[in-house]
Amino acid sequence: MTSEQIKTLDKENVMQTYGRFDVVIDHGVGSTLYSPEGREYIDFASGIGVNSVGYGNERWLRAITDQAAKLAHISNLYYSEPYARLASILTARTGMADVFFANGGGEANEGLIKLARKYSYDKYGLGRATILTLVNSFHGRTITTLKATGQEVFHQYFFPFTEGFRYAEANDIASVRAQAGDDVCAVLLELVQGEGGVMPLERDFVDQVKALCEQNDWLLLVDEVQTGVGRTGTLFAFQQYGLLPDACSFAKGIAGGLPMSGIMANEKCRGVLTPGTHATTFGGNPVSAAAGIAVQEILDDDALAQVREKGDYLRARIEGFHSPAVAGVRGLGLMLGVQLREGYSNAALCADLAQRGLLALTAGQNVLRLLPPLVITREELDRGLSILKDALAAL
Question: Is the pTM of this model over 0.90?
Fold first, then answer.
């Protein structure tokens, strides 16, 4: 089908819940994508951080096809090898104690919320269920995770929302203390606020939140939906902050392009979720789990070091453009935000980049967000940077 035919099918048959770019993608190789007509796009978006090992990776593809030929689905009523192997890899590489597999980031964060509230209920009974999150956070699109999200723009239309959340300012421990109370059971953090503008939290602030949690027996929860699976240059961002959270969520890049997510708990919270208290039909799907194992094998320690090096290179090159439109570049690894000055539009720049052959994302208050595949080559980085430089120069 042609690009125009595909767009027509979408308009006639699909709920129009997405503001799509005027781009149709047919296939990809490495970190380069192609339209049905063969138009080329350098990918600095990776499916919003999902395609961690790029497109057409042979190891990843072989794992999927081999597993699909054996067993595509069996449900969690029975044991199978792939999910158990993937869980063992994740616990070994992180120091966490156990894993629950789900399907998407919002579902994973729902699992975190349920775990925290059950931990508190089991120990203290009713009345201790409030979770503190941060202003500008983003935790998902379900009714509950929308309410957990610390942005008022998301608190509309779908009333009544789930109660039990309060919001503190990032990097302000006094604000966290002001939201404390006898009803609190947990604090939920993104160590780099992705949708909120690619804003890394300060190490000292995170340390103080950790101490506050320990003093009050609140669970420290980390949302690693976007920051996890190598995106920031370590397998999980919490490893750069010297943390072992009580529980964390993960999604996006875990299966390299197939739907998969989950939560991990430390020894303190191991076994909080017992039979019948949490479940999902497709969680731990054998094909997705096989893909997840391949991703873990590809993203070894050397590959993670290269993510850090590529991130440093990308940041330095953009800063070196000395564009009057750019106020600064921030982030960790290959999760970078380019802050635009007042008078420039991240949405307009993103649309222009797509027309020039570079896919990027927006975030927060006028931020251009860059999330390339973690395996992107230096040559692809340079081609994308050349397009970005030209687009900035044209502003």
Answer: yes
